[in-house]
Specification:
Length: 267
DNA sequence: AATCTCTCCAACCGCGATGCG
DNA sequence: TCGCATCGCGGTTGGAGAGAT
């Protein structure tokens, strides 16, 4: 028996996400949280499958995402972790708050691999290529012998997986260069690339919205997506919500779904 | 200026793991 | 315990942009 597709493919949109789709998804999740990805696109009024929404949220829209290139120190840590964990990107990513497995995987495949090749290191065992003979180093990848420290972390299985759930009780871990990153985030808003995820920051255990960035974004969107506003207009968040959210699915509709949908109290 | 090649990364796909009735 | 639905992970692809010719 063939496996059923994860969702109804017919009529679903694929490919790059539009600003409006990002906004709908972000809006929905910030207001309602995540319980079942399958119903998220339906309730958010998106013609996407849940899987696609999940990926978009995790890799791009999550408010706690760290942006910008990897530092040398981060690269070193990735190499170290990779030597112990192999291609277990989600495990490696868990050591980098704000980084996604996809981001690390991409960085590995495009940069670090080359760097190691250039240095004459074996990508799997991270040893000089010449020293690799009949070692079954591939076992290291498929069944890596983890170091004790990492293994300990691995085995704390009681810890909830929080990949896709907005943490409202845990303070966001802030790195030394977060300020730099935030500045960079703002810069992207003034450029043509609109970065919705960067509008939101975790502060005092809450997600807060940067008003300056927000209005900048709105200016950008108003030029490209919405005909109702002109760049420079200032609007309230409520107004944004009213204007930019598809009225097909009124939020009131969701208030009855608290029991099944909401993971946490509304912020 | 036009074309080709390369690089990067967002997004997709398939499958194993997990949850639940 | 079983089977189905859904989630999450890792591998892969494809397109946009940059750089080279």
């Amino acid at each position: 028996m063939g496996r059923k597709p994860c969702c109804e493919k017919i009529g679903l949109k694929r490919g790059p996400w539009t600003i409006e789709e990002d906004h709908r998804l972000m809006n929905f999740i910030l207001n309602n949280g995540i319980h079942c990805w399958r119903v998220v696109p339906k309730l958010a009024g998106l013609l996407r499958c849940g899987k696609s929404c999940r990926l978009r949220w995790i890799n791009y829209l999550r408010p706690d995402l760290k942006r910008g290139g990897f530092t040398d120190a981060e690269e070193d840590t990735i190499m170290e972790l990779h030597s112990q964990l192999g291609n277990r990107w989600s495990k490696i990513a868990s050591h980098f708050p704000g980084r996604t497995d996809n981001e690390i995987k991409n960085h590995w495949n495009t940069k670090i691999k080359k760097k190691m090749k250039h240095l004459g290191l074996n990508q799997a065992a991270h040893e000089p290529i010449n020293s690799i003979t009949n070692q079954t180093e591939s076992k290291q990848i498929t069944n890596p012998n983890m170091s004790s420290t990492i293994k300990e972390k691995e085995e704390t299985k009681d810890q909830p997986k929080d990949d896709v759930i907005i943490e409202t009780t845990k303070p966001l871990i802030v790195s030394n260069n977060d300020e730099e990153i935030q500045t960079e985030n703002c810069k992207t808003l003034y450029a043509e690339e609109v970065d919705i995820g960067s509008l939101f920051t975790m502060q005092d255990n809450e997600i807060s919205i940067s008003s300056s960035s927000f209005s900048s974004l709105y200016s950008n969107i108003s030029r490209s997506e919405s005909s109702s506003y002109l760049a420079g207009d200032s609007i309230s968040l409520e107004q944004w919500d009213l204007d930019m959210t598809d009225p097909l699915v009124p939020w009131d509709l969701f208030t009855n779904l608290d029991d099944t949908l909401f993971l946490y109290d509304k912020m």
